[in-house]
Amino acid sequence: MNLSAIPAFQDNYIWLLTHAGRAWVVDPGEASPVLSELARQQLVLEGILITHHHGDHTGGVPELLAEFAQVRVYGPANEALRFDYHPLQEGATIEIFDTAVEIIDVPGHTAGHIAYWLNPSSQSPILFCGDTLFSGGCGRLFEGTAAQMHESLQKLASRAPQTRVCCAHEYTLSNLRFAAAVEPENTALQAHIQQCEAQRAQGLSTLPS
Ligand code: ZN
Ligand code: FE
Q1: Virtual CA dihedral for 192, 108, 57, 194, nearest 10 degrees?
Q2: Is 192 among the catalytic positions?
Q3: Which H or E element spans position 193?
């Protein structure tokens, strides 16, 4: 399967998984960039994964459902979304392109936030973590407690270290600059900032992390 990111709004990424002309998208906050990319690659949308209820992660779903009748939509069991979907929570497993996808409960940013982890054959694992874990930081605590967020991050940290972390925003440089203010002596951090600045200067994404 192929993994790529569709930029949306100011700094969102809508992750796209494709295989043999079929496509899944993660957190489509708006439909138009997804529809353009599907048309460009001549893909049929097969499914949608939602990590949490925020509008910048769900807003495009109704329009995508109107375009593609057969789409399966998965989302968090402990949040209310304003369209029909299959509710998921930790312990559940679904399949995308014959690859098992594990569901992880990661409350903190929102109360019912979930993450999706998959381990495709002959590739590094993939994590879709929405607004929970970012490159160099984590999501804001809108609904959960710091203790919940810490526990959620520990769960993600226990996954394979080569996991490709596919977060939903390009927040890397602002997170790293904050980190550098906290740890001014950290030379690994300085090197990583330089690398990410170079990527952004070329208009490239810093993700997956
Ligand atoms: Zn959010
Ligand atoms: Fe967001």
Answers
A1: -10
A2: no
A3: helix 187-201
- How many whole angstroms from 130 Cα to the centroid of ligand 2? 7
- What are the angstrom distances between the C-alpha of 53 and each of 50, 145, 162, 187? 8, 17, 28, 38
Q: Please provide residue 45's backbone torsions phi and psi, each rounded to the nearest 5 degrees.
A: -75, 125
Q: Identify whether 169 is a catalytic site residue.
A: yes
- Annotated catalytic residue within 27, 53, 113, 131: 131
Catalytic residue among 54, 105, 113, 192: 54
Q: 137-192 pLDDT, tens per residue? A: 999 999 999 999 999 999 999 999 999 999 999 999 999 999 999 999 999 999 99
Which ligand ends up closest to the CA of 76?
Answer: 1
pTM flag (> 0.85): yes
Residue 90: partners with Cβ closer than 8 Å, 6 or more residues away: 103, 104, 105, 114
Indicate the SS3 state at residue 38.
helix
Quote the CA–CA distance of 168 and 83 in Å, as a whole number.
Answer: 21
